[in-house]
Amino acid sequence: MFRIAGSVTAARLTAACCRTVTTKQFQVHGASLHVLSSDTSRKTRHGPAHRTPPSWQSVRSMASAGESQSKINYIFFGLAALFGGGGIVYWWSRKYMRETSKDTPKKAAAAVSSASKEAAETVAEKPVPETTKSAPAAPPPAVETPAEAAPDAESKKLLDAVPQSYPDFEVMPEIPGHAKYLLIGGGTASFAAFRAIRASDAKAQVLVVTEEEELPYMRPPLSKELWYSDEPKLVEKMKFKQWNGKERSVYYNPPSFYVEPKELAYQENGGVAVVKGRKVMKLNPQKQVAVLDNGWEIFYDKVLIATGGRPRNIPVFERASQEVKDRVTLFRGIKDFKRLDEVSKNASSIVVVGGGFLGSELTCALGKRSRDSSLKVIQMFPEQGNMGKVLPEYLSQWTTAKVREEGATVKPETFVKRARFSDGKVILKLNTGEEISTDHVVVAVGLEPNTELAKESGLEVDDMHGGFRVNAELEARSDIWVAGDASSFYDIKLGRRRVEHHDHAVVSGRLAGENMTGAKKPYWHQSMFWSDLGPDVGYEAIGIVDSSLPTVAVFAKATEKDTPRAVVEETGESLRSVTETEALSIFGSAMQQAAPATVPDLEVMEATLPTKESSAQPTEPSEVPSATDTEPSASEKTESATDEPAPDVEAAAKLVAEVEAENRVAPTPKEDYGKGVIFYLRDDIIVGVVLWNLFNRMPIARKIVKEGKQHQDLAEVAKLFDLHADED
Fold first, then answer.
1. Which of 156, 150, 63 is nearest to 112 (CA)?
2. What are the C-alpha distances in Å from 449 to residues 308, 481, 496, 542?
3. Count of beta carbons in the 10 Å neighbourhood of residue 131
4. 89 neighbors 33 (Cβ within 8 angstroms)
5. How far is residue 228's CA from residue 366's CA, in Å, rounded to a whole number?
6. Where are the beta strands (DSSP E) in 574-727?
7. Are 468 and 486 spatial neighbours (Cβ–Cβ below 8 Å)?
8. E strands, 245-399, where?
9. Which tens digit of pLDDT belongs to each residue from 565-596?
10. Around Cβ 18, how many Cβ atoms within 10 Å?
11. Calpha distance 577→580 (Å, rounded)
12. pLDDT in tens, 431-445
């Protein structure tokens, strides 16, 4: 006797084979035969996971069904395939119960076998009359079986031992067909999102789909601490020592934290599952379906796009031969780190193309490694100095000198015009006419936001900044959110922006996760970023830090506490975005307190780079006049000549020298910028702040940028950062 519900046409057999839907079952002697209906609503799809327990008669009869059981199963298998031709047929024979209930059928079989054996022995002991021996055997009398008999005590006991509903993971698909929360991408933004989701919805079942073959991990150590480890075995496990010597893994959570994707739907207390090595090719916002690269479909309730970015290449290497391409690394993830780590152990020379954060960090790291080997490290970029697009020119040149001290050869204002392969080497033709022969090339020139989903999914892309355009709640369309590098969001203070930094991934991912659970919070946070050139030099920044903007800087003498190593030793945390929480408790009231009356030895430095944007906006004037301010005009000279005696030229020159010594208008790159704060101005409003070797002050900088006020005296604003707190 069987029951089939929700049939579909035979023409949809192939499509239905890739779907996971609610099960319809029928049973024959304890064998559950499942017909899956593709017409079932996605809201109730949980996969062919649960077996309905058999009746008590089935439990008792399983032990004696014998080989006829298999034949019956095959008969009904064929019937189900014929009449339910649109679905997948799942069936089980008498061994359908798994490890959790193996003993139950054995007990039933033993009970029936024992009863049969006792009955046989009783019959054998009875004497058989002689007349009966010679007479032909008479047929046994017919015994009527009741249609529905009540179970006896033993059968009821066996029936109670059978689980009422339990998953059969061996026959389930590896990827579930439905996820309440679907996260596309396995980076920091997804990690922050599923933490926020689980915090708001304790029993949430979250499915992460990532192209990488890795669990969610942090990227900053890939260009920082991992290169400074002296324990190769530690690095092989993707573990590193923070600047304070504490061991840590790049993975946010151990493998035991996650559940298998096919088991996710059966976690009563929720959980997080990661599908590795798969790419989401398309979203259907109307049907709320995500299509993977293998054709599998996942229905979702809420989805987050956190696809991040792809490392940008340059045309000269895109057009190069395959031999050249095989020796070029576009540095981004764990796979790239492992490759470059292996190359650096055997290569004689490596060229790093790019002078930004990543390029400069990798150059310092490789330069340190070159001290103990014959490796030669060369860095080149078109700017005038390292991080020239961010730092003022004088500080950029100082940074370049610091990178050279690490053992690397730095070539500013240099770029590659052609690349060819010859005699096992990559030959680079530079704009200066020079040719460089190298074993490997690392390209670190920024990211391209990964927006491949946009065209096929009907999502809007920001033509100016790149990335998916989202509203204040990071929502691109109904039930679709975007976070991290791929999001173009509107900043109420600084306008529409796209940020490619760790802290932004954390903050935007957390906000998106909260909004996916119904928070409806707008994005207001000013994310920060940081860069370390080894354990002794580092900086943190917030807002718009663009070297084309006018800047005003205040520096002071650094101490032993003003290094990345010192801040990690103090806080025990290498991710500077995390240490801000502690800094907030220390300096949270600083902005509400009056600045000290005087702070000695402040050096207020004004620097305006000769660009189109900055030429029209002079820097904030100093209280003390500069050399150009003391020079009188022609009319003033005439008036002074008639009213007053001619000034003492030597005395005036001496006064100017003293003024410039106290307030340098044109700082030189030879100066040792121990620690300080750099303000970036637009329309006389602070829109960005860089804290140079100045740590745990980010809450103050964040509030200054958020307020968006004009300040008459930036030296007074600088006092809020307490630059001289650690001086003797």
1. 63
2. 6, 15, 15, 21
3. 7
4. yes
5. 9
6. 603-607, 675-682, 685-692
7. yes
8. 247-249, 271-276, 280-284, 289-292, 297-305, 309-311, 328-330, 349-353, 376-380
9. 777 767 655 554 554 444 444 444 444 443 33
10. 14
11. 6
12. 999 999 999 999 999
Mean pLDDT score across all residues of the chain? 75
Give 443's strand partners. 330, 353
Choose the weakest-confidence range: 367-381, 393-407, 650-664.
650-664
Could you tell me how many residues make up the chain? 728
Structural contact between residues 296 and 176, judged by C-beta atoms closer than 8 angstroms: no
Closest by Cα among 73, 77, 96 to 35? 77
3-class DSSP state of 125: helix
Q: How confident is the model over 106-146, as pLDDT tens digits?
A: 554 454 455 445 544 544 444 544 444 444 555 555 555 45
* Among 381, 370, 314, 380, CA closest to 343: 370
- For 204, counting Cβ atoms within 10 Å of its Cβ (0-12 exposed, 13-18 middle, 19+ buried), the class is buried
Paired sense of beta strands 309-311 and 447-449, if any: antiparallel
The dihedral region occupied by 133, where left means phi > 0, alpha psi between -120 and 50, and beta the remainder, is alpha
**The tokens of 403 are what?**
């990178």
The whole-angstrom separation of Cα 498 and Cα 479 is: 21
Which of 424-457 are b and which e, b meaning 16 or more Cβ less than 10 Å from the residue's Cβ? Answer: ebbebeeeeeeebebbbbbbbbebebbbebbeeb
- Whether the per-residue pLDDT at 50 is higher than 50: the answer is no
Q: What is the pLDDT of residues 705-715, one digit of tens each?
A: 988 889 989 99
Q: Are strands 425-430 and 416-422 parallel, antiparallel or unpaired?
A: antiparallel
**156 contacts: CB under 8 Å, gap ≥ 6:** 56
Confidence of residue 245 (pLDDT cuts 50, 70, 90): confident
Closest CA to 673 of 658, 659, 692: 692
Q: Is 0.70 surpassed by the pTM of this model?
A: no
Q: Is the pLDDT of residue 175 over 60?
A: yes
**Tokens, residue 7:** 């049939």
Contacts of residue 36, Cβ cutoff 8 Å, sequence gap at least 6: 16, 19, 20, 21, 22, 23, 24, 48, 87, 88, 89, 90
Backbone phi, psi, residue 359, to 5°? -60, -40
